[in-house]
């Protein structure tokens, strides 16, 4: 079957997610919510820091030293939790990837050793040539990439939503020219059109990643065969 983002992909991903997060009280779900909360907090903090930047520039233009010192003090104070949240997002992402890896590895090994599946794969079935690669490196790569992809998809979505909403509120508060009310809609349209253009022009990364994993597995399989038949080769 073709490799791409289609209905089959989402169905398979849903099955895997049920393995990674089996219930709401699991440790992986708690880490997922923690990671999501950190991403949301980072978005709101980015908006607040942008407002502080504007206030600092405004105080400089107006030559108001009192407001400048006050906003700079607030900015330096906010920089401490901002740095902490950035580091915490990476930490939570690593912990979530490790939890997903543990869940998926345990499920894969339970299935691998059930009903002599390992024997049938090695001797009777040729569809899976590199089970050692699939049960180790591929699981680690998949879980790490999944959590990394979640972070890089969720944060831009929150950024677009919060920044657009903030822009709408600012326009309504200022009550300036009527044309400004269309700015958030135009922003969303531009972002969506950019996404479509990038998707159209980008290469098929899914196929490339799949081919890379296949070649890595074949290389490991070849080395394993050399070790197994070392005496005959010598």
TrEMBL record:
InterPro entries according to UniProt: ABC1_TM_dom, ABC_transporter_sub-D
Keyword Acyltransferase: no
Membrane-spanning intervals of the chain: 29-50, 71-89, 179-198
Gene Ontology biological process: fatty acid beta-oxidation; long-chain fatty acid import into peroxisome; peroxisome organization; very long-chain fatty acid catabolic process
Pfam families in alphabetical order: ABC_membrane_2
CC annotations in GO: peroxisomal membrane
UniProt-recorded name of the protein: ABC transmembrane type-1 domain-containing protein
UniProt organism field: Rotaria magnacalcarata
């Amino acid at each position: 079957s073709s490799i791409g983002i289609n209905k089959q992909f989402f169905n398979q991903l849903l099955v895997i997610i049920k393995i990674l997060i089996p219930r709401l009280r699991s440790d992986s779900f708690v880490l997922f919510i923690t990671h999501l909360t950190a991403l949301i907090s980072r978005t709101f903090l980015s908006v607040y820091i942008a407002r502080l930047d504007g206030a600092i520039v405004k105080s400089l233009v107006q030559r108001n030293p009192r407001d400048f010192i006050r906003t700079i003090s607030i900015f330096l104070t906010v920089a401490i939790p901002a740095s902490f949240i950035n580091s915490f997002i990476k930490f939570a992402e690593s912990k979530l990837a490790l939890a997903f890896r543990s869940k998926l590895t345990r499920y894969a090994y339970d299935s691998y050793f059930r009903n002599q599946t390992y024997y049938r794969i090695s001797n009777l079935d040729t569809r899976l040539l590199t089970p050692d690669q699939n049960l180790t490196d591929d699981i680690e790569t998949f879980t790490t990439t999944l959590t990394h992809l979640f972070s890089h998809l969720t944060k831009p979505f929150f950024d677009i939503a919060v920044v657009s909403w903030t822009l709408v509120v600012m326009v309504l508060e200022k009550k300036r020219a009527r044309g400004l009310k269309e700015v958030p809609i135009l922003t969303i349209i531009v972002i969506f059109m950019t996404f479509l253009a990038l998707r159209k022009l980008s290469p098929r990364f899914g196929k490339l990643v799949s081919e890379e994993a296949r070649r890595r597995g074949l290389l490991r399989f070849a080395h394993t065969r050399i070790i197994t038949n070392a005496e005959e080769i010598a």
